[in-house]
Amino acid sequence: MKIKVQYVLGVSVALLFYSCGSKVPSSAAPPDIRVFQTRGQNIPVYQEFVGQISGFKDIAIRARLEGYLEGIHFQEGSRVRKDTLLYEIESQPFEEKVAAQMSRLAEAKTMMAKAESDLNRIKPLAEQKAVSQSDLDAALAQYDASVASVEAAEANLRAAKIQLSYTKIYSPITGIIGRTKAKVGDFVGREPNPVILNTVSSIETVLVQSFITERQYLLLARRYVAQEELVEKPAREANLELILADGSLYPHKGRVDFIDREVDPSTGAILFQVSFPNPDELLRPGQFAKLKAKVSVVKDGILIPQRCVMELQGMYSVFVVDNNNTVAKREVTVGPKIAQFWLITEGLKPGENVVYEGLQKVKSGLVVNPVIREIQLPNE
After folding, report:
1. Rounded distance, CA 191 to CA 357, Å?
2. Confidence check: pLDDT of 136 > 90
3. Which residues lie below 8 Å from residue 309, measured CB to CB, with a gap of 6+?
4. Domain residue extents for the chain
5. Are the C-beta atoms of residues 369 and 318 closer than 8 Å to each other?
6. Would you give the end-to-end CA distance of the chain in angstroms?
7. What value does the mean pLDDT take over residues 356-375?
């Protein structure tokens, strides 16, 4: 009887475990993970350089003589034409010099007329031996001296008139004039008062100056030599872009005007200059901007969003989902950043799925359901 009871209990326990086991749920489905599918394309690589804008011509307006400023004949910040009167310096002292030199010239001409009259009177007498040869020589020397005196007086008068003309300062070019550094009544023309009164800038075309390192220069120089071998005279194309202070891209492109003759040994950099058309006069001297230049083109390059890349102690890696939907961690080599993407130089091939979202939720060996996230790449 005891054995029968044990048998019944055993069967009951077995049935209980069987019924519970039949209610155990099946294994969970693989989680959905958003991935980015890589694709190869020709990727232009750009480099940015910080530069400063200047006018095509920035002409300093200076006082060429000392005196009190008597008049300002322009509106600050306005456009002025070439030969427009800008400043006027007190002219009375220089007018007096002109009058004095005119008086000396008249005196010298009177002396010359008298010497000429004496020479004309003595010359026929000398031919008739009525006067000595020494008298004739003296009259001739006196006449030559009076002629030289007239020439010297004329030269002094011209110099005085030139100085008088400097009391009126005219614009040397057509352009935009800035804020005046001297006011009416200031004594100008020497320190400590301002010697440079103003600056006029021609800005229909502007210049942007920047610096490149010696290494960058060698790279660009070799590319230029290679281009020269392909064509007889490579043209300097207008292919440089300008990024303004607000982050906007300037609509006109620029071309390199020149590269300086030497590398600055203290900085290891070399100056270069780029010119940009400025028809709307949006750009002004003194602005800072970034030059954007295409330095190379990577053929069949791979771009992935920056959020896909993990960085630890200078090592970069990504999670890749293989054909079996299994996650694997892979080290990659990154190139420059392009917009919100990394250029991958090693470690990935076109057509691979890189984990885009949920990097904290995945690990190597995990089986997932990849959901492709469509993202437009640059230049597409």
Report:
1. 67
2. no
3. 316, 317, 318, 332, 334, 342
4. 32-44+298-372, 48-55+202-297, 64-85+170-194, 92-165
5. no
6. 86
7. 90
For the segment 355-372, the average pLDDT, to the nearest whole number, is: 90
How confident is the model over 89-132, as pLDDT tens digits?
999 999 999 999 999 999 999 999 999 998 898 888 888 888 88
Rounded Cα distance, 240 and 249, in Å: 11
Phi and psi dihedrals of 108, rounded to 5? -65, -35
Pairing state of beta strands 369-372 and 32-37?
parallel
Query: Considering the domain 92-165, what is its CATH architecture?
Result: Orthogonal Bundle (1.10)
**Distance of alpha carbon 180 from alpha carbon 131, whole angstroms:** 70
* 300, two tokens: 């069949």
Contacts of 329 (CB under 8 A, 6+ apart): 317, 318, 319, 320, 363, 364
Q: Coil, strand or helix: which one is 278?
A: coil
Provide the pLDDT confidence category of residue 188 given band limits of 50, 70 and 90: very high
CA-to-CA dists, residue 344 to 45, 310, 338, 359, 375, angstroms:
12, 13, 11, 18, 16
**Tens digits of residue pLDDT in 265-284:** 999 999 999 999 999 999 99
Q: Residue 50 has which token pair?
A: 């910080």
- CATH architecture label of 32-44+298-372: Beta Barrel (2.40)
> Pick the residue with more confidence: 239 or 175?
175
CATH label, 48-55+202-297, candidates 2.130.10.10, 1.10.4160.10, 2.40.30.170, 2.40.110.10: 2.40.30.170
